[in-house]
Amino acid sequence: MARHLYSCPLRWSDMDAFGHVNNAVFISYLEEARIDFMFRLAPGDGSPSFSGGSVVARHEIDYKLPLVHRHEPVVIESWVTKINAASLTIAYEIKDGDQVYVRASTVVVPYDLAAARPRRITAEEKSYLLHYMDDDEKGALAA
């Protein structure tokens, strides 16, 4: 299984009064990594995949350790844990080497903005996502 790696810089304004990254800011970090991951397939190669829009149906976040400001970015690893006909689940770890600050997941629903409704995942999108799917889950999907 491949993992998508995103280098995420920390901003001074991300800190709260207690001197660490505010819990709500982690949602923005996850969004940056998710957009970078999903749009790797899209318009650069002329593919319409994922360019029509998507919506977040669910977030789950486990805060493991406080993250304080520093000049070095953190790495956000992303991978796919579930693919349904009209949704997918992306898992993440925000980390520094072996040090994990956050574990999270997001359920994403592809969305047709023009029709204002959810849409199915295309064959091209599914093929792309399978490269990043957890090997245990990939076996369950094939069964």
Automatic annotation (TrEMBL):
Molecular function in Gene Ontology: fatty acyl-CoA hydrolase activity
Pfam families, sorted: 4HBT_2
InterPro entries noted in UniProt: 4-hydroxybenzoyl-CoA_TE, HotDog_dom_sf
Tree of life domain: Bacteria
Gene3D superfamilies tied to this protein: Hotdog Thioesterase (3.10.129.10)
Stated name of the protein: Acyl-CoA thioesterase
Organism from which the protein derives: Streptomyces corynorhini
